[in-house]
Write a structure and sequence with these properties.
Elements: E1 6-8, E2 14-16, E3 20-21, H1 27-40, E4 44-46, H2 54-63, E5 72-77, H3 84-98, E6 103-108, H4 118-130, E7 134-140, H5 144-154, E8 160-164, H6 172-181, E9 184-188, H7 194-199, H8 201-210, H9 214-224, E10 228-229, H10 236-243, H11 252-259
Helix pairs in contact: 1-2, 2-3, 3-4, 4-5, 8-9
Bound molecules: NADP nicotinamide-adenine-dinucleotide phosphate.
Length: about 260
């Protein structure tokens, strides 16, 4: 089984550098895929109330037979439940659906600047963390300015900002800000434009040189930027390939060639 390294979070907890994206993994087949993924070595699971699969994630955590403390279960607060009280209520429904005692990582899914409630929502997450119901708190899809506002108004920096980050969209400025502030960058949709990347000459050449698959080259690029990556697959074979990223390393020229692609 692949032993996945972890990064420290500012909360004191750790986050594995590869996790399972779970968008659309729902129902009985979703529970089965999630359970198999945990049994195959995934320790970070990325759910959201908006994905409608918190129940399935909780079932898989209980069915997989892996000690609870080894798992980093993530869920996210939806856009229509911003506000201090609304966020606390929303968390109650999430943890009930999960059927777990604690959530390891709780994120605000989107900042929703038009509502202008993300600071009070963040205060609710701080309360949940202080009560011990959540181990680490973070955000998703937040800009530098929005994180700076959280820091200025609450004195609390998110452990994680989960953003779209992939070849062709490498978020250099945001990553530099995260690094300076001790925030872990989590990359979502790393395999977007996968059909173009699978056929791309540069990706194929690099994959061949290392004896790996195109998707492993793409995900390894995310890892070597210093980010956590959360590819989604419903298929056990593809899940295993997406986790098997630690037997090769891209050199500087390969990283640059991949960064120059615009799929
Ligand atoms: N915070 C946010 O706003 C946000 C937004 C988007 C996504 N996310 C999170 O990030 C996760 C990942 O992003 P994503 O779901 O957009 O897409 P993704 O992981 O970039 O790509 C998923 C697609 O790639 C295919 N795939 C996966 N592994 C493959 C492989 N080894 N070979 C060939 N095809 C492969 C999957 O098909 P199969 O299932 O058939 O393998 C699926 O169609 C989400 O599931 C979610 O947890 C968060």
């Amino acid at each position: 089984m692949t032993d996945v390294p972890a990064l420290p979070l500012r909360s004191g907890a750790e986050i594995p550098v590869v996790g399972l994206g779970t968008y659309s993994l729902t129902g009985r087949s979703g529970t089965r895929s999630l359970t198999e993924a945990i049994q195959a070595g995934y320790r970070l699971i990325d759910s959201a109330k908006g994905y409608g699969n918190e129940r399935e994630v909780g079932e898989a955590v209980r069915a997989a037979g892996v000690p609870r403390e080894e798992l980093v279960v993530t869920t996210k607060l939806p856009n229509d439940e911003h506000g201090y009280d609304a966020a606390l209520k929303s968390f109650d429904t999430s943890i009930t659906a999960l059927g777990l005692e604690t959530v390891d990582l709780y994120l605000i899914h989107w900042p929703m600047p038009q509502l202008d409630k993300y600071v009070e929502t963040w205060k609710a997450l701080i309360s949940l963390r202080d009560e011990g119901r959540v181990r680490s708190i973070g955000v998703s899809n937040f800009s530098v300015e929005q994180i700076e506002r959280l820091e200025a108004e609450t004195g609390e920096t998110p452990s994680v900002n989960q953003v779209e980050l992939r070849i062709g969209h490498e978020q250099a400025e945001l990553r530099a800000f995260h690094e300076a502030h001790g925030i872990v960058t989590e990359s979502y949709s790393p395999l977007k434009h996968g059909s173009a990347l699978a056929k791309d000459e540069t990706v194929r050449r690099i994959a061949e040189a290392h004896g790996v698959q195109w998707n492993q080259v793409v995900l390894r690029w995310n890892l070597q930027l210093g980010t956590v990556v959360i590819p989604r697959s419903k298929d056990a074979g593809r899940q295993a390939a997406n986790l098997d990223l630690f037997g090769f390393e891209l050199d500087g020229d390969e990283m640059q060639a991949l960064s120059a692609l615009r799929p």
